[in-house]
Amino acid sequence: MSQPTVSRPAQSGIPVLHDMDVIVMGGGPGGVGAAIGAARNGAKTLLIERYGFLGGMATAGHVNPWMPNHHDGKPLDTGVFQDWCRRIEELGGMKLPARHFCPETAKLAAEQLCLEASVQLLYHAALDGPLMDGQRIDCVLALGKSGLSAHRAKVFVDATGDADLAARAGCPFEFGREQDGAVQPMTSNFDLANVDVARIPDRKIIQEKYEKAKAEGRIRCPRENVLYFKTVEDDRIHFNTTRIVGANGTDTLSFSAAEVEGRRQIAQFIAFLRAEIAGFENARLHSMGAQIGVRETRRIRGHAYLTRADYERAAKYPDGICRVTYPIDIHNPAGTGTEITHLPKGEWYEIPYGCLVPQRCENLLVGGRPISVDHAVHSSMRVMPPACTIGQACGAAAALCARDGLAPAKLDGRIVKRLLIEQGVALIEAPDGAAPAGGTERKDRRAEVLSA
Ligand SMILES: Cc1cc2nc3c(=O)[nH]c(=O)nc-3n(C[C@H](O)[C@H](O)[C@H](O)COP(=O)(O)OP(=O)(O)OC[C@H]3O[C@@H](n4cnc5c(N)ncnc54)[C@H](O)[C@@H]3O)c2cc1C
Is 274 in the same domain as 238? Predict the structure, then answer.
């Protein structure tokens, strides 16, 4: 039976609330990086966010800790991301160099940094869609409490994590892994408080009990182990261990159903931990995300494209705007297992600027996780520190394009790279004879299986 549909009359008289140099859609790590990156480079910048706070997965998704993106023991994300961490620390929400942080403080810190950079913020406004003028976005329509409003800019940055704006602007994208379009599973993260951490047994003992509980039907979760982390409080443990397979974060019904399944699994985990694992006898649910964690949906096709083969050869580019050492980390889209594949020791790969520039739209950049890379590379670059740096690169590029009346595709990515270096990002100027800009169109795929 085909889906019943309705139509609505075309709407006129939508108020235009902003006329900006740069609009960033979405305020996660990518959007925070982009908005601050644009504003610090002189662009009149607006950030639009559907929730009433910033941070994306780091706050709304209750994702913790920052995964390491280090080289030689030193962090690579030394731009906006480092400023964010330092501000969280100043506000008492983390102790550097530890990587776990207080999500509530992360909200405060991100907002303070945006305001200090003169970023304007529009909260509680979800993207409805762009109004196009040929292949240019004239303005975006956002749905808020007073209905639709329009927001105009010279250049836009899609930092929705799902490439919502790019998709609605008609840009081509990929979805999921190459063989079947399946995406990484979702996870509902949660924290338990009042844990006697000193009494938590060895992970091997937890594993045995977990497997028994699964075999006896007391836990229904396809994940292979119990993944947990310490937090900023001594008696609180963070869990990234539920697994919701087959859900689609860009499908209204599927996204909603995933929330229900995530909380069903959380309830089972709490019961199991309290009943069977030492130290958790008196634990109580401390917090869950405002939303389920979505690892993967769309990835745009841009002017460059990185593949697993580029990852394996630790590809470098003259216009590499982000260095990444975090491994390929694919939670099995079909169920149990996680693939972790490290780079050769001491190596990193770079993301060329063209991966941020979508095809078929003349004034759009994409920041954060849905850039132009394959399923395997996405599983590596998606973690929050590089997502923020990629966002910062988009913001810097958007500011230059707005200033000079340039399309992002016409901007030389080496200029963006140089600007990022001047502004403190740990990039390296390309040596003579480096690989040409632009990534590759080669397709190489393969995955075995093993964790963010
Ligand atoms: C379960 C899980 C565990 C993870 N574990 C780790 C980890 O331990 N460490 C780590 O570093 N990384 C981890 N990651 C990865 C990381 O959290 C994300 O890849 C990263 O946050 C991506 O940043 P982003 O800004 O691109 O997207 P997001 O963080 O998703 O931010 C997107 C923002 O856009 C807003 N938005 C979306 N759509 C719209 C719309 N239509 N209109 C208006 N606003 C919109 C959202 O509300 C959000 O604020 C994990 C991810 C998941 C899901």
Answer: yes
Kindly report the protein residue whose alpha carbon is nearest to atom 39 of ligand 1. Answer: 160
**73 near 328, Cβ under 8 Å?**
no
Determine if ligand 1 sits within 6 Å of the CB of residue 369.
yes
Q: Which two tokens stand for residue 59?
A: 């706050």
Q: Specify if 442 maps to a domain.
A: no
Residue 368 CB less than 6 A away from ligand 1: yes
Q: Out of 91-105, 215-229, 430-444, pick the least confident.
A: 430-444
What residue numbers bound the domain in which 241 lies?
Answer: 190-288
Rounded Cα gap, residues 380 and 306, in angstroms: 11
Q: Provide mean pLDDT across the span 309-333.
A: 98
How many Å lie between the centroid of ligand 1 and the Cα of residue 276? 33
Ligand 1 centroid, distance to 71 Cα (angstroms): 24
305 belongs to a structural domain:
yes
Q: Look at residues 14, 28, 146, 20 and name the one whose alpha carbon lies nearest to residue 387.
A: 28
Identify the residue whose tokens are 């045995």.
Answer: 208
pLDDT in tens, 57-107: 999 999 999 999 999 999 999 999 999 999 999 999 999 999 999 999 999
Same domain for 213 and 70: no
9 lies in some domain: no
Ligand 1 atom nearest the C-alpha of 452 is 5
Domain closes at, from 271, 288, 305: 288
CATH number at residue 199: 3.30.70
Residue among 373, 240, 232, 375 nearest 296 (CA): 375
Beta bridge partners of 329: 340
Q: What global pTM score does this model have?
A: 0.95
Quick one: DSSP state of residue 279? T
Distance in angstroms (rounded) separating the CA atoms of residues 313 and 343: 8
With a cut of 90, say whether residue 362 has pLDDT above it.
Answer: yes
- Judge contact between 106 and 55, C-beta under 8 A: yes
Residues 63 and 211 in one domain: no
Per the structure, how many domains does the chain have? Answer: 2
CB atoms within 10 A of CB 1: 3
Whole-number Å distance, alpha carbon 33 to ligand 1 midpoint, is 13
212 and 147 housed in the same domain: no
Residue 313 in contact with residue 365, Cβ under 8 Å?
Answer: no
Regarding whether 24 and 148 lie in a shared domain, the answer is: yes
Q: Do 283 and 318 belong together in one domain? A: no
